Amino acid sequence: MEGGCWPYKYIALVSVFSCCLGFVAPVERRYVNEWAAEIPGGPEEALALADELGYDYGGQIGSLPNHFLFKHRDHPRRSRRSAPHITKRLYDDNRVSWAEQQYLKQRTKRGYVMNTDSEDLFNDPLWKNQWYLRDTRVNPKLPKLDLHVIPVWRKGITGKGSVVTVLDDGLEWNHTDIYVNYDPEASYDFNDNDKDPFPRYDITNENKHGTRCAGEVAMVANNHKCGVGVAFNAKVGGIRMLDGVVTDAIEASSIGFNPQHVDIYSASWGPNDDGKTVEGPGRLAEKAFEYGIKQGRNGKGSIFVWASGNGGRQGDNCDCDGYTDSIYTISISSASQQGLSPWYAEKCSSTLATAYSSGDYTDQRIVSADLHNDCTETHTGTSASAPLAAGIFALALEQNPNLTWRDMQHLVVWTSEYDPLANNPGWKKNGAGLMVNSRFGFGLLNAKALVDLADPKTWKTVPEKKICIIKDSDFTPRLFRSVDEITIEIPTKACEGQDNYIKSLEHLQLEATIEYTRRGDLHITLISPSGTKTVLLTERERDTSTNGFKNWAFMSVHSWGEDPAGTWTVKITDVSKRLENEGRIVNWKLVLHGTSTCPDHMTNPRVYTSYNVVQNDRRGVEKLTNIDEDSSNEQIVTEKPTENEEPEDPVKAKAMLHLLKNAFDREGAAFAEEQAKIPKTHYYHALQKLYKQSGAKDKGNNLYNDYIDRFYNRRPYKHRDDRLLQALLNIVDKDS
């Protein structure tokens, strides 16, 4: 069956409900003395209830109407045990329709008039190193390396009027490369409950992440400081919410902060990327997402940008992360300077697009502002990709402020580029003629194409979204063992003849409850009526949980643009073939999100052209032969060691592994005395050796995984940058 919106072809939009209906937490919960409650009577009844029951009233939760926070004065601030008797007392009050005790959540940070030649555009000292924004090729036949932003700037589009806030660990708003664009109305500190998001300083500069992400979006141009933000005239704010206790209420307050003022929310964090966590937004955070897309930006919908995750080395799958797996977020993955999928990137069917970031340890990284009014050239991971995307979306909103949240997703799908990433495996053409990949979504963001398509003179808002739910009311739980394959065929007319009929698909969700003795051995694929085969879940070696999945919504964008009418096929297998494994699929439903008519821009098929041709359509490409060399690159190895190459001195290599261990554990070893005479190339050799060991089949003797386990168990990390590379760079910086 063919699909597509152009004549004689059709598109179907399928979307997955965000995954808060039920999630499995693999770690023991820590409860706090705060309760969230929904009180339809409003703030007056909430205040009265607090007085009567002896609570401290914490006010409304973010922008959620009739949702309030209460603190119990006589209950411990933190406890391993919940207090169901207190929850029941709230629930039993006829003024309360819902109540829940809050618990700690682990979250990981995932980080004018123009001259002719790109190297002369700005006087900012690190502009020459922003390879992902400026075309650094010396030959027009070489692959392009940038996000095609300069042509947008040349049109005078620089982010004016757009407001971006970074949900993270704070923002050094008085930084001289940020202050001019700082927006206090887009900022708040939910860790200390005040209006100042300034980060907490410590000896390790742990809370640099939010400032780095904000700098990528809106560093000031032409001020002789650091580099240039993608949207260097946009306003940027910071929400400090990761440097302390993280609860569902704090997440909801952050996600829903000032939604009539903030346009774009950028988040480079999420549940642990450890290859064994399954978690999504709680009830409050999910409601904040829903409120944002329905009420934010005066009804046009808030735009949520999310880093897809850094668990690639741990075999993680971002379909097990309910934030990137949400239909409400634009999930952004990473590509390296070489146009390859980095070692840390995760594969999943929910990723929408890709931006550049760090790659191999010899590749350049991302430039931004840093703590203490400093600059950095070492921002890394999917943490660094998401803010670049947020900056591009800010440019699009200057071009067309009336874009809806779904318009933005359509623009991303229709303009992202397959060609720059074509050398990677996994590309397929779906039934609507769109190229898509579980590593990169629909490809590399193309700022010029996206902004051009968003032109208000020609862009037509996409049709109203419909939701079609398909389920078998007669389905009975099906048992299966490791040697079996469960196949479920789902015929549907996509709600034809009803108001919620879908002809053109966007997101798709398979919501299922699956019980199994070893969750990480499961593999789930979905085949659309057009024949598009999508992997909804890959096996995860480190996930030994017996909890299975409870009402978990596996989301895919891979059938975007297809007609969903026909037979869908679900296949569930155990790739391990461990004979002791067994379980059952308890229930399922297929949720399609899309439109009854074809969006205007999809009337004709997508035409893919060589991205180099697009890039060369500008002035000055032949003049890029005199680019200044980056003096900082002397510490980067230009020759990669071969697969079997060993460091020159095994004693020094052992010392390097020891140093990496200390850096990774942040034990504060005195590095200078140990490393002063060791060439920097040995650091990279040692790190490559460490990663080769991590890929070994002997999982029981895995140095890297041992570090990862201690890392997440002892001090949950909050960010989605390349943590081990940051440790290495700290050593190199000390040696310098």
UniProtKB/TrEMBL annotation:
Entry superkingdom: Eukaryota
GO cellular component assignments: extracellular space; membrane; neuron projection; secretory granule lumen; transport vesicle
One BP term from GO: peptide hormone processing
Residues annotated as catalytic: 168 (charge relay system), 209 (charge relay system), 383 (charge relay system)
Stretches for region Disordered: 630-649
Protein family membership: Belongs to the peptidase S8 family. Furin subfamily.
Cofactor(s) required for function per UniProt: Ca(2+)
Name of this protein: Neuroendocrine convertase 1
EC number(s) on file: 3.4.21.93
InterPro entries: Galactose-bd-like_sf, Kexin/furin, P_dom, Peptidase_S8/S53_dom, Peptidase_S8/S53_dom_sf, Peptidase_S8_Asp-AS, Peptidase_S8_His-AS, Peptidase_S8_Ser-AS
Molecular-function GO terms, alphabetical: serine-type endopeptidase activity
UniProt entry keywords in alphabetical sequence: Calcium, Cleavage on pair of basic residues, Cytoplasmic vesicle, Disulfide bond, Glycoprotein, Hydrolase, Protease, Serine protease, Signal, Zymogen
